[in-house]
Fold:
Amino acid sequence: MNLRALGYFTKLAELKHFSKAADACFVSQPTLSTQIRKLEEELGVSLVERAPRKVMLTPVGEDIAHRARHVLRDIEQLKTAARRSKNPATGTLKLGIFPTLAPYLLPHVIPVIRDRYPDLGLQLAEEKTEDILTMLDQGRLDAGLLALPVDEHGLDMEILFEEPFMMAMPSSHPLTDKDAISLADLEGEELLLLEEGHCLRQHALAVCELAGSHERLDFHATSMETLRQMVAANTGVTLMPVLSVKPPVPTTGNIALRRFESPAPNRTIALVWRNSSPLCRFLRKLASSLIPDPALLLEP
Structure:
C-alpha cells in the first residue's frame, strides 16, 4: 500500500477539499485524485463521496482515515527513533502547552532548556487541553504540558509541580481586609470564569462547588488577561494561578491578590506523552527542566 496515498487521503479527510488538500501536499489536484482512486480500488470500497462543491467521507472512509493517521504517526515515530537513536536531545521537539500556563511558565523554563540542551529546538503549540490530547494522539506533538486530571489511556506522564491559586479582586472589595482567604469566604460570591474548553474553568468550578459560590453567567472570558482586566474594572472576582501574578507579568492597577488558607486550591501540572513514543526516556529526563524555581510557586 502506498504510504504517500494514505497521506493524501488523510489530508483530504482533514480539509474536505480536493484543491486545498493538493496544495497542502504540494501536488497537483489530478495527482491527488488519482492516488486516492487507486487507494479505493486497492481497498475495494468508496472512501469519498464526490459532489460538485462538497467532499464527504463515507462511513468506511472515516474509519480508514482514522486508522491511516495512526499508521502514518507510527511511521514517523520509526523515523524519529532512528534519527534520535544516537542523541535524542537533538532535532526539534514539538511541545503543546495550554494558554493559561504558556505565557507564565515558558519565560522561566525556556532559558534552562536552552542551556541544558543547546542542540534541541522547541516547536511550541499553545492550544486548549482537548486539542493537545488530539494532536498527541495523531503524532502532531511529541509531548504536552497539561493540568491533571487527563485521560491517561495510551499516555505516560511525569508530574512536575503543584501551582496554587490566588484570589484576585478589586482593591475596594471587603475581603481585602483579610491576609488569607478561606473557601467559606467565597460563599455567595460571583466568580468571573473562562469560556468552555479551558481547563482552568473546570478547576475554578470545582472551587465554586466547594465554596458555595457561583459563576457569573453573562460573561465568559477568552483569556487570563481578559479576566485580569475585568477584575480591575470592578466587574467581579476570579481565581488566578500564582505564576500568572509573578514577574515578568506586569502588575495591574486596582487588583488586590490574596492567598488561600491551607489547604489552598491548586492545579497539578504534568508533562504527558504517548507511551509508545521513542522519546520516553528523554522526556522523563527533560521533565526536570520544566519545573520553575520553587520560590515562584509561593504565594506573594
Observations:
- Residues 60 and 262 are 54 Å apart (CA to CA).
- The first helix runs from residue 3 to 15.
- The mean pLDDT is 88.
